[in-house]
Amino acid sequence: MSMIRQELLNLENLSVDVASDRGWLRVVDGVCLNLARRRVLGIVGESGCGKTMTALAITRLLPARACRIRADRIWFNNEDLNAAGENRLRQVRGRDIAYVFQEPSTSLNPVMTIEAQLEEVMRLHRSDVPEHDARSEMRRQLEAVGIRDPEQKLRAYPHQLSGGEKQRVMIAMALLAKPQLIIADEPTTALDVTIQAQLLALLKHVTQEYGVALVIISHDLSVVAELADDIGVMYAGQMVEYAPAEQLIDAPRHPYTQGLIASLPEQASGTRLAGLSGEVPRPGNWPCGCRFHPRCPQAFERCSQEAPPVFKPRREEEVRCWLYSV
User: Fold this and answer.
1) How far, in Å, CA of 154 to CA of 142, rounded?
2) CA nearest neighbour of 146 among 211, 218, 195, 94
3) What single-letter DSSP state applies at residue 312?
């Protein structure tokens, strides 16, 4: 008998518009994704493709005056967050869905000790822990994410910690609320290679040990491939390919995904890396037809005239490309 994977997060036709001096510009366009409990989803793409905006839109962590969020469905843990009011979303943020952002120095309050910041999470989201047990719970969580001498680190201020330690504190803070989903946005940016590897191993351990689902966002496909069960590739505001990680890495279908994989250092066959010519078009300047066609080595006439729909070459695979129309 096959095991049924219970769906935790489902986005259908998510779009985000941002205000500009040229009017409303669409930065996320019709994104769909699914995430089951205890699974890891990687979202990859070049800077400016809409990865972070997609993640922030899930709990409407975007300024309402400057951004418009629309979706047919934002379904999380059997609840439609589209219909949730601001008070309910405040409960969901941090407690049920926790974010780990790419720059912990700007996420941690520089004038508060680590203990005071963890205490705030405990007060907001962990009413089940008696006050006299709160400190030991915080210390235990710091130990769990590999912080050495957690007692000293509780008394420290953010500037007294290394970049890797600050990111570990952010992960501890996320776990402290016992969330069902963690969204990690470029969590290894600006860290050296050794610390990056340690943090990726920690995130992998977290999903297995705590049973949480994880969305990891990165411009680096090799980082995503380390962790993800499934990978979504974004380009110019759209999800252009979506597949199980192993299938996507071994047999990428979209020409953009093929270009990303070919540009990885481990794929280099000579002294020069393969690269993608051109750059991601900006919102408001998206080309007609397929948005990737000006950079695509496999483009043909239809690509410049008509936007491709999503095709399903195989079960659990989706690709937005005219090459798969037959």
Assistant:
1) 9
2) 195
3) -
What per-residue string of b and e applies to 1-23 under the rule 16 or more CB within 10 Å gives b?
A: eeeeeeebbebeebbbbbeeeee
**C-alpha–C-alpha distance, residues 326 and 323, integer Å:** 8
Nearest to 100 by CA among 195, 175, 14, 197: 175
Question: Three-class SS of residue 183?
Answer: strand
- Rounded mean pLDDT of 154-163? 94
- Is the per-residue pLDDT at 319 higher than 80? yes
Q: Are 68 and 24 in contact (CB under 8 A)?
A: yes
Dmax over Cα atoms in the chain, in whole Å? 69
How big is the CA angle at 93 (ends 227 and 143), to the nearest 5 degrees?
Answer: 55
Identity of residue 28: V
- Phi/psi region, residue 187 (left: phi>0; alpha: psi -120 to 50; beta: rest), is alpha
Q: Rounded to two decimals, what is the model's pTM?
A: 0.91
pLDDT top residue among 274 and 173: 173
Which domains are delineated in the chain? 7-324 (3.40.50.300)
The pLDDT, as a whole number, for residue 129 is 86
